[in-house]
């Protein structure tokens, strides 16, 4: 037998191998020279000389040898891998049902995970699309009443000029409203607009696509300047650069378009343009107008803590200087990324990630179970391989290759599943859930995620079965009857099913809580009737309708609309419940005239809205005390207001009717406080679907508070309110002969309600879908283990029957063992649910994390599914014919 | 004029030496010294190589998989490392011979004019 030098068992170190080789060569050369007649000493010297520089040779040869050894090991490994993969594919092809079930299970698990990964990637992992995003922070005014409030413009300017750790601080109004753009052909169009301060583009560091951004000069000159978004530039102006520098007519005034911003900038708000609001020579009162969302860019190398303490010092100074407005007020900051993504979206992303992670674990458990069953059947094959000299590690490696091949096929299909989910995702995801530029996209990151997930999953579900399958003693297995299942394998399989049931119960419980939340949010009494109300934003051009004719315009439109057949009621308002408000969401501070004075900084806040007298009847919103607005309330009569129940409750038993209230609209800080007399109390209305505290609300009559934009509300006599829209548009046009009135946001209150509860529905639907998948997978798991064990025990049952057991006894035996597994899983799952319920408390509404009805419901659902999956195998066991069973080997 | 190997043999010499070693091993497994002797004798000392330069060539051929090493016994009765031609080595030799024949035929044609 040839002894290879490269044998793994017996080998000589490379340098020794070389030394021996050279020694032999020199020896033989010396002998040859001596035979030729040379003196022995001289011959040896000559042989050595002929060899050359031996140490250099040795280095070269040993180096070559090392490289060769490395390459050989690699080749060997690759050859084994190739053999294993070939063998695995042959094995999988030989069991098509198993392969199909296993790969589809994995594809579902990995695909669902990749889609959720896209969401998490877009919201949590990717940085903001601005240069050096880690230097951007959001700054809030903190007061005893609000932990994160908007800032007043003078405060923001002082933060900017007095802080030392910021490059620049600027602000914008958080809500997007609209302006009417007059077109050259005389028609009008409503365009969304966001107010910003002059420095905002410098803070965010995004250069304009064309033109320039706002400058300090613009602000000093109080110039009317706007920057268009790329979207508006494209859709309305065909990307024509000539628009830059031109003036356009917005709300009847001339505004200069100074620049175009790229799409990425739309993150502040989904808007078509940004208009500069100058803050110069402001009256002292402006310090109490909390209306700006403020962002700042920290200087390079500044830690957020250092910036925070710098600004706290600045705020302390401002509180001493302006105690009226700033006492007890300070600044808090957070990374801008946190503000943009929002805690709600972050929680949703993490919730989904956790849920799909669990689904993937169940998928793994199911595939592991299938593999274990297969491994039991293959024990003989493996024992033979082992007897032929394959080491345990070699067999484990071969089995692991099989599961990884399986996982890779599953992962490849999973990429397809993820792609399809992301294709339909935009339709399912409610508007406003994702901030501006956060879009879900299918890219290489998703593919990489699937690849990594497949490998991890392959090892995860493959390692236990592989280890299990190789723990045998070969002679014993080969000599035995293959029908006996190994005890340890059975236990492992039962444990996996217990884990699956527990996870399914946990997910089911989470889905139950979210569904109860959705029900609570949808069926909550919001105080008004949303059915059959059409709404739209009506924006008469200021120039065409000077204030003295505006009332006339609103009255005429109302009358024309009432004349439409099928219209039950018509009203004007600046806001609709659950929907947008024309003023944005600025709470305004108020005080009761005659009460001891309260510092501005500590005054309570209220929402404020303008409404016509018919507003309350149109929404079926009762006036619970006092009177409604009526013909007495005119532009010349004393100003009045209707308050809501929250205001009445805040008085501590005093009668609200007749009280004089002073309030400052945050939107116009330059105005004097308005004094109104409370004439009525309306029922409480929820402004947001999951509002936990009741807000104080003021309504003032349209006749006393005329502004440009109004929402028109039309209650229909029929269910189909949206069918009235064309007739209402025609009515408006009949009043406005010049056709310059902008009409936008045509929708119904029901649609607004539907959208407002969108994120609750989205969460509930998603988690329920995943929980259903989990329950189905767990069912498959229970069914699989049971069917298999019945199959294995046919003879055992046959013997029992032959010895007098009834079919009922056998059935009880099977059901009993299954119930033990399911019950153990359910109990563990419910305990986990009780522990983890609190983690999702922030997304729940109207239901407690330890909700007993949900516990009961989950138990019932699990019981029914368990019964369904147990029934088949138990029935089969009961029908075993003893005579036949005993004959089978 | 004899061709002498230098300290940094060029590609042509590399190729020629490799081909000569492979050719030598067609007669059966040999140790390094036997290969050196055979080349000296058959080339009529026209191809004078420094004994040392043979070994890197052998290691290189083994790395390429054209020869295999095994332990055998030398004429002195000691353990000796023997080199054996592999199938890949045989194919390589055939290719080298073909190239060489084409090359020398071409050169001969030039000299014949």
Verbal overview:
The complex is a heterodimer of chains A (889) and B (113). Chain A is an alpha+beta fold and 889 residues long. Chain A has 26 helices and 22 strands. In chain A, strands 3, 4, 5, 6, 7, 8 and 9 form a 7-stranded mixed beta sheet that branches. Chain A has a 6-stranded mixed beta barrel with strand order 14-15-20-17-19-18. In chain A, α5 (153-162) crosses α9. The model of chain A is unreliable at 482-486 (pLDDT under 50). Chain B has 113 residues and is α+β, with helices and mostly antiparallel strands. Chain B has one domain (3-102): Winged helix-like DNA-binding domain superfamily/Winged helix DNA-binding domain (Arc Repressor Mutant, subunit A, Orthogonal Bundle). Chain B has a two-stranded parallel sheet. The radius of gyration of chain B is 15 Å and the shape is globular. The interface between A and B is medium-sized, with 30 and 26 residues.
Properties at a glance:
heterodimer, A: 889 residues, alpha+beta, six-stranded mixed barrel, 26 helices, 22 strands, B: 113 residues, Arc Repressor Mutant, subunit A, two-stranded parallel ribbon, two-stranded antiparallel sheet, globular, disordered N terminus
Counting DSSP E segments of at least 2 residues, the number of strands of chain B comes to 4
The computed structural class of chain B is alpha+beta
In oligomeric terms, what are we looking at?
heterodimer
Report the largest inter-chain contact. A-B, 30 and 26 residues
What's the structural domain tally of chain B? 1
The shape of chain A is globular
């Amino acid at each position: 037998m040839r002894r290879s030098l490269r044998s793994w068992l017996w080998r000589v170190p490379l340098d020794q191998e070389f030394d021996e080789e050279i020694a032999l060569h020199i020896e033989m050369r010396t002998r040859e020279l001596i035979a030729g007649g040379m003196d022995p000493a001289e011959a040896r010297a000559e042989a050595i000389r002929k060899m050359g520089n031996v140490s250099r040779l040795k280095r070269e040869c040993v180096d070559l040898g090392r490289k060769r050894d490395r390459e050989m090991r690699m080749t060997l490994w690759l050859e084994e891998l190739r053999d294993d993969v070939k063998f695995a594919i042959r094995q999988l092809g030989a069991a098509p049902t198993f392969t199909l079930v296993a790969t589809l299970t994995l594809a579902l698990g990995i695909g669902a995970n990749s889609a959720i990964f896209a969401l998490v990637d877009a919201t949590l992992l990717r940085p903001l699309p601005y240069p050096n995003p880690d230097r951007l922070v959001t700054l809030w005014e903190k007061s005893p009443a609000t932990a994160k409030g908007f800032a007043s413009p003078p405060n923001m300017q002082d933060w900017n000029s007095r802080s030392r750790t910021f490059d620049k601080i600027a602000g914008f109004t958080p809500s997007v409203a609209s302006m009417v753009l007059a077109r050259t052909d005389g028609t009008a169009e409503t365009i969304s607009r966001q107010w910003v301060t002059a420095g905002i583009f410098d803070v965010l560091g995004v250069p304009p696509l064309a033109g320039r951004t706002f400058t300090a000069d613009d602000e000093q000159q109080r110039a009317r300047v706007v920057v268009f978004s790329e979207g508006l530039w494209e859709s309305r102006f065909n990307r024509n650069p000539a628009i830059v520098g031109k003036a356009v007519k917005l709300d009847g005034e001339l505004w200069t378009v100074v620049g175009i911003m790229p799409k990425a900038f739309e993150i502040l708000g989904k808007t078509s343009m940004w208009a500069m609001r100058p803050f110069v020579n402001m009256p002292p009162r402006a310090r109490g107008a909390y209306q700006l969302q403020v962002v700042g860019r920290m200087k390079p190398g500044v830690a957020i803590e250092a910036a925070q303490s710098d600004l706290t010092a600045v705020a302390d100074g401002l509180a001493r200087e302006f105690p009226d407005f700033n006492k007890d007020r300070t600044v808090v900051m957070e990374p801008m990324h946190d503000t943009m993504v929002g805690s709600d979206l972050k929680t949703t992303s993490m919730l989904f990630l956790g849920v799909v992670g669990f689904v993937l674990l169940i998928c793994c458990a199911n595939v592991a179970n299938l593999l274990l069953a297969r491994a039991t059947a293959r024990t003989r094959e493996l024992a033979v391989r082992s007897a032929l000299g394959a080491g345990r590690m070699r067999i484990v490696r071969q089995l692991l290759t099989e599961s990884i091949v399986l996982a890779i096929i599953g992962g490849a299909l999973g990429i397809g599943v993820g792609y399809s989910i992301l294709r339909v995702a935009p339709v399912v995801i409610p508007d406003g859930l994702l901030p501006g530029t956060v879009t879900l996209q299918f890219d290489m990151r998703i593919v990489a995620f699937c690849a990594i997930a497949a490998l991890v999953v392959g090892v995860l579900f493959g390692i236990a079965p592989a280890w299990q399958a190789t723990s045998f003693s070969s002679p014993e297995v080969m000599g035995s009857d293959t029908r006996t299942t190994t005890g340890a394998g059975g236990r492992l399989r039962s444990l996996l099913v217990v884990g699956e049931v527990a996870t399914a119960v946990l997910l089911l419980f989470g889905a139950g809580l979210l569904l109860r939340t959705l029900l609570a949010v949808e069926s909550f009494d919001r105080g008004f009737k949303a059915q059959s109300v059409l709404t739209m934003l009506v924006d008469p051009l200021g120039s065409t309708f000077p204030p003295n004719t505006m009332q006339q315009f609103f009255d005429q439109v109302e009358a024309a609309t009432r004349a439409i057949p099928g219209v039950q009621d018509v009203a004007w308002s600046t806001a609709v419940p659950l929907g947008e408000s024309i003023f944005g969401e600025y709470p305004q501070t108020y005080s009761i005239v005659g009460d001891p004075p309260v510092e501005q900084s500590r005054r309570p806040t209220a929402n404020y809205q303008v409404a016509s007298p018919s507003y309350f009847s149109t929404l079926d919103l009762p006036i619970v005390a006092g009177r409604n607005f009526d013909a007495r309330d005119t532009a010349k009569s004393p100003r009045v207001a209707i308050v809501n129940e929250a205001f009445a409750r805040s008085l501590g038993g005093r009668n609200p009717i007749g009280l004089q209230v002073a309030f400052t609209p945050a939107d116009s800080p330059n105005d004097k406080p308005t004094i109104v007399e409370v004439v009525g109390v309306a029922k409480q209305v929820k402004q947001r679907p999951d509002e936990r505290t009741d807000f104080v609300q003021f309504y003032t009559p349209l006749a006393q508070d005329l502004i440009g934009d109004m929402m028109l509300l039309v209650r229909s006599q029929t269910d189909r309110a949206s069918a009235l829209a064309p007739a209402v548009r025609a009515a408006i046009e009949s009043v406005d002969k010049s056709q310059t009135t902008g009409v936008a946001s045509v929708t119904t209150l029901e649609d607004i309600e539907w959208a407002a509860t969108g994120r609750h529905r989205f969460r509930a639907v998603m988690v329920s879908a995943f929980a259903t998948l989990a329950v189905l997978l767990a069912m498959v798991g229970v069914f699989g283990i049971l069917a298999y064990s019945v199959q294995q025990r046919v003879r055992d049952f046959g013997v029992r029957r032959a010895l007098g057991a009834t079919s009922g006894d056998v059935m009880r035996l099977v059901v009993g063992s299954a119930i033990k597994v399911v019950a153990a899983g359910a109990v563990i799952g419910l305990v986990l649910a009780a522990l983890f319920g609190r983690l999702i408390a922030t997304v729940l509404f109207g239901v407690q994390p330890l909700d007993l009805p949900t516990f009961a419901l989950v138990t019932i659902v699990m019981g029914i599914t368990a019964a369904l999956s147990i029934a088949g195998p138990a029935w089969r066991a009961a029908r075993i014919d003893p005579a036949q069973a005993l004959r089978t080997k | 004029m004899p061709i002498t190997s230098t300290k940094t043999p060029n590609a042509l010499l590399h190729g020629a030496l490799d081909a000569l070693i492979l050719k030598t091993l067609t007669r059966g497994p040999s140790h390094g010294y036997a290969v050196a002797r055979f080349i000296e004798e058959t080339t009529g000392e026209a191809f004078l190589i420094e004994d040392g330069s043979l070994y890197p060539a052998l290691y290189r051929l083994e790395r390429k998989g054209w020869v295999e090493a095994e332990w055998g016994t030398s004429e002195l009765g000691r353990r000796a490392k023997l080199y054996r031609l592999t199938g890949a080595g045989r194919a390589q030799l055939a290719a080298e011979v073909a190239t060489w024949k084409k090359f020398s035929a071409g050169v001969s044609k030039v000299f014949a004019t």
